[in-house]
Each structure stands twice: as structure tokens, then as C-alpha cells.
Amino acid sequence: MATLAEVARHAGVSASTVSYVLSGKRSISEETRLRVENSIRELGYHPNAGARALASSRSHIIALMVPLRTDMYVPVMMEIAIAVATTARGFGHDVLLLTGEEGPEAVRRVAASGLADAMIVMDVELDDERVPLLRDSARPSVLIGLPGDPAGLTCVDLDFTATGALCADHLAQFGHKDVAVIGEAAAVYRRHTGFAERTLDGLRSRAREHGMRVIHRPCEGSYESTAGVLARVFEERPDTSALVVQNEAAVGPMLALLRQQGRAVPEDVSVVAICPDQVALQASVQLTSVAIPAQEMGRQAVELVMAKIEGREPAPVTLLPPRLTVRASTGPAPTAP
Amino acid sequence: MATLAEVARHAGVSASTVSYVLSGKRSISEETRLRVENSIRELGYHPNAGARALASSRSHIIALMVPLRTDMYVPVMMEIAIAVATTARGFGHDVLLLTGEEGPEAVRRVAASGLADAMIVMDVELDDERVPLLRDSARPSVLIGLPGDPAGLTCVDLDFTATGALCADHLAQFGHKDVAVIGEAAAVYRRHTGFAERTLDGLRSRAREHGMRVIHRPCEGSYESTAGVLARVFEERPDTSALVVQNEAAVGPMLALLRQQGRAVPEDVSVVAICPDQVALQASVQLTSVAIPAQEMGRQAVELVMAKIEGREPAPVTLLPPRLTVRASTGPAPTAP
DNA sequence: CTGAAAGCGCTAACAA
DNA sequence: TTGTTAGCGCTTTCAG
């Protein structure tokens, strides 16, 4: 592996000049710059990451903490992770993958060792034990998700309250009066992840304004549990004419069950899903849906964290506005028999 | 951040002693070891990653290259990635996440900069452009997947040939004569990822021995495409009594469609899936399946790569044996009408 | 606009 | 069993 010194010798300049050509931190004459760049290319030089980190105390690495749990919809996590990685590369940074397994200790370790310059934390819970550590840490961090108390933190998330409200508005327009929310797995609520509750709040309060009735049932997402939930819903509220589904795994089973029960979508029942577009498009009926902007969240998280690394102080909370795409699964409420 | 020198002073020993306590590379008296460990704890010392990497030319980082594409079943990728990360931590290593985006250049960059000590590459194609680079690279690497020519490489993968054969055996036992394979998306075959072809080969040749007829149709996995594939299958081979499904996304739609068509599983049609257990268990009929051992693959990949880092030379190809779990979706072939 | 040189914090000979 | 010390390759003052 070629070293900076070798490049310097090859180009007939000093080491510092090569360094400055690389960093652009002081002006270099066109001529020497070209000579140096040539040498770099010819020797196939890549700066040594360790040496650079040691001398500059910047590793050009961003740590990404993903949850170990698997009860959330995994493709969304993956999409965020990939967006983070590619966006970070655009800023000349790499991404270190931390699983939740180490827990809060990972935060300490990475910060203290200087392994990463900053940290992005996914799947934040309302009362997350990593949050106090992050708040006190000398290294910048950005959360994807909203903890109970975001004071002193930087967070990005989809505006789930607005998402719920948007669903309510859309269904109200079609004259629906009885709405059922097929929610996330019970464990998600028990863990108080926040987003599920916020969706529900937004939907409920807007529904009230529209004079709609709402019931909510958690759903594990398997075929069996979806069947159970659906049965209970129509038993308790036979006039239910619209379903809002927040558990992506339940989408497929639910549509299959409705078909089986002879309930046509959207003639008998309208369905709005909160899910990635891919899921909405692959379903047996193209679903009206509010998309989870996974890429956008990853991208934003990196931009916020880079801002902090560079000493700027971004807005503490960034809520991405939801977008509802009307497809084939929603329509007017059936007129009373 | 405390430095090693500070720890040394605090413990009343030399820097090298602290270093050796940390690395265990030479024997230390019980007494000094304890004193040093205490100081480390008291000062909350974590070795500086950059300095360590520079001095030892080992970053204790393993790069993991994940595909950018999203036409493979994402949860499996994620599960492998998480298994890699947690296993690596057990070896005192961290994982750097590289997306396919940079392409082969990432291999060069990471190797030359010393950012990572080794590399694990997922979703390897039969004729992968990263493979020659990896083969020539000074840094160890392990592939998850099997390229066309594994010479000079280290690879782990599920034994897909055996997987196909296993499916054939199981169905033959039940007296099935006409089998249809619902395969991966056409793009997967076009890309020559290998595993899909190997499954098919294994299944076909074993089927021949059993006197079974096999047809194979690629399937995109959406409800619509699954419907089309299924229709064509039963049109061409009305006597088809068993389905082998290799595209996880098609599982849900397929079961829904069969139910709709009045084909009972397993009375009229047996179904074997090649998919993660979670998918097999969440389906409307508990599926007889061959599991994708994602965790095991991740774990093995790390162990192989660690062996190479430590100078050992592991077996070039590790094929994990498939395991078929019998559940509710397979049974005797229906007797001719 | 460019060069010289002092570290950054740690590892690993070499010495004792 | 422990200490001394010379780098590892780069960044960044300080000089010129």
C-alpha cells in the first residue's frame, strides 16, 4: 500500500502538500495539484483510515444502531439502512452497523473509542435507555423515531399523527361512519414505540371532528390472528365500512379473508394501509395507502447528523409530512341497506 | 477521553504493560493485571480505534457488502447481516456496511485504506465482477453464495442442490407424479445468481429418479403474477398435485388463490416452500418447508473470515445441509379420479 | 503558495 | 514479569 510520503516523493512535493490537495484545506497551484493527483492515481493511493483518524480525530464513520427485534417490518429497516449508507458515502463517510444486542454499552464504546464520529439510532422507544447516554455524549447523534422527551436531541420521523388524520379525512370524504384500525402487534404497543399510538391519536381526534366512530385492535399479522381480529371487529361493529391497516404483515391475509367472506373491496369495505408502496402495489387489490418514506428518513438522518458534525445546530425535530396515494381499495361507503 | 498513557500512570505501570493487559499477548502478574483493570474501569478507558489500527494495522472491522437490489427477500438479508454483526462482536470486531452501489470500487477502497481487515460479500452472482478483485486482494474475504468458479475463494451457502433433491424426495414419498416449481422472479434467473438454478437442478435430477415430471415457472411474487403462473401451470399440467415454491413473496398469494379455486391444501395440492420458518408459520396453512438458515450462514461466514484473519486456511466451500420440516401443507397425492 | 516537523494514541520489538 | 522506545501514516501548526 502506497503511503502519503511515497506520493509526495513521486510528485516531488512535501507530505503536507499532498495532504492539503486531498483535504482542500488550503489553496494549491493548479500545477502542483495536477502533479499530485497524477501521482495518487498512478500509485493507486488510498489514505490509511487509521492514521487519518488518529491525526484528525475524525474517523469518517457514522454508526447506525438497528434494532435486534424482528417484530417490526424488516424491509423498512433495511431500506432506511441502505439509504443511510448511500447518503453517508455521498458525504465521504462509511457506516458501522451496530445491533441492539450490546444495548446502551455500544453507545459508550463507540463514542469513547472514536470509532465513529456520530451515531444514528433507529427504532427509538418512548422511554429508551439509550437516550440519556446519547444526550450526554460528546458525539452528535440523530434518532429515527420520537422518544417521549426529545429535549436536547435531534429526531426525524414520519408525522404519524398527521398520517392518522389523513386517513380519517380520506375516509370521511367517502362518507364512512364506522372505521376499524387493524394495528401493530400488541408487543409494539406494550413497548411504547410511540408511532403506533400517535397514528391512533391523530386518527381518533380527526375522526371525532368528522363524526366517525373508531375502534382499534392490535394484530400480530399472521393469517390466524388477522382472521380473529377481523371477526371480532365485524361482530362488535357490523356496520364497519372502512379498515385502516398499520401492520404490513396483516395486509395480505386481510384481503384474502375479506374476499373469502364475500366482502368486496372497495364496494363493501374500504381499506387504507400505512405501508411501503411496494406492499400496496403487490397486494391483490392496489391499496390506497400512506407510504412509509424510508429512504427519505435515512437521507434526512444523515444530513442532520452531518450538519451536527460540521458544527451546525439543526432543528430538534423533523417530521416528514405523510402523503396518501389513492388507489383502488377505497370508495364511497355503502348506502345503508 | 482517557488515554492508555493515563491509565498507565494511574496504575503505576508502563504503557506497554497496559497494552499487554488489553491484548493478552504476554503474561502479566495477577497483581498488576488487576491494578490495571481497575484503572481502566475507573477512568472509563476505551482504546482509541484509530491509534490501535495504525499501530497494529488491524482495524478490528469486517466489511459486509450487501446488495442494493431489493428483488431478493429482504428479511433474509437482514437476518444474515444481524447474525454477522453479533457474531463479529463476539470476536471483538465491528461491521462496516457497504452497499452494492459503489460496486467493485468499494472493495479496492476498503482494502487499500485498511478500513476493514476482511470482507464478507452477500448475494454473489455466478459471474460477479467483485470476485476477481477479491481473489487478488491481500485481505481475506468470504462469500455468501456460490460464484461460477470458487477457486481461490472461501464460500458459504445453503446446499441448494440438496434442497431441491430433498423436496423431490419428500413429494415422491407421497406418491406425487406431477410437480410444478414456482420459482424466483425472472430477473433472478437472468442475473444468474446460481442458487435458483441449483435448486432446480437438484430437484429435476432427483425427480427423474423418482419418475416425477417437473415444470418450472418463474414468478414475480405479486398477486397478479402468481395468479397468472398458477393458471398456466394447471392449464399445461392439469394433473399437477404438488407445488414447490421458492419465491417467498408468492406464498401468501398462492395459498389465497388455491383456496379461491377450491383446491384444498394438502388434499388436492401439496405445497413445499423454500423459505424462512417465519413465513412458513405465518401462512394460512402451516407450510412444509426447507428453511433458509440465515443466522447460520451469517455466523459461519464470520467464523470463516476470522479463521482467515488469524492465518488459518478454511475449507474453500461450506455448504450447509438443508432441513425439511414437515407441516400441514403436504400429504398423499390425490388418487386418480 | 509550499515545506518542515511535531505529534495523534497505540503496538511490538528490544532490553532488562 | 516489566519498562523503554521507535515507529505506524496522517494532519496541522508554524515558518518561509
UniProtKB/TrEMBL annotation, chains A, B:
Keyword terms: DNA-binding, Transcription, Transcription regulation
Pfam family name, one: Peripla_BP_3
HTH cro/C1-type domain mapped to chain residues: 3-32
Ranges of residues in domain HTH lacI-type: 2-56
Coiled-coil segments on the chain, per record: none
Taxonomic superkingdom: Bacteria
Protein name in the entry: LacI family transcriptional regulator
Organism: Actinacidiphila acidipaludis
